[in-house]
Amino acid sequence: MRRTLIVPTVLAAGLLVLTSCGSDGYGGGGGSGAAATSSSSTSGNALLTTADTDLGTIVVDGSGRTVYVFDHDTQGSGASSCSGQCLQAWPPVVADSADPVVDGVTGEIGTITRDDGTLQVTLDGWPLYRWQGDAAPGDTTGQGVQGVWWVVDTDGTRITDAAAPDTPASRSPAPSTSAPAGPVY
Average of pLDDT values for 10-15? Predict the structure, then answer.
């Protein structure tokens, strides 16, 4: 009897954790797991460069990882509104200097100083982030998460197009509609 209660309890707890990741604002990717191709062959030392994806030409870091902007940030404010758990899911793109090297990125590049003293890179005044759900260079699974996270064009314009069709490997459980949504990160 005790064994039969443990298995459903463990399964229910696991489902709850997965579902909450989709509804708390920083889980449940909306983009494609398809790899992108780098459009620049000289990006070896660049902190930011570009890649061609199903969403168009987007900005990626020097390792080919997609970078995102957050609608809850204020463009040009010099501050990030992502902190705490948000930063665990969406780590900032950081630089070693106030003048990061870029390749193929045409928007204005800058930095802001975070509370911990690190320099977060900005593009056209928007702080830039990575998404923990992107497993490989070129993944865009953070596109459209909670309707507030977006990839950016080379000039810093948010690309709000729907995410490319996903694959079974990149799907996350749908957020629960029976409970109120958690905080948006």
Answer: 38
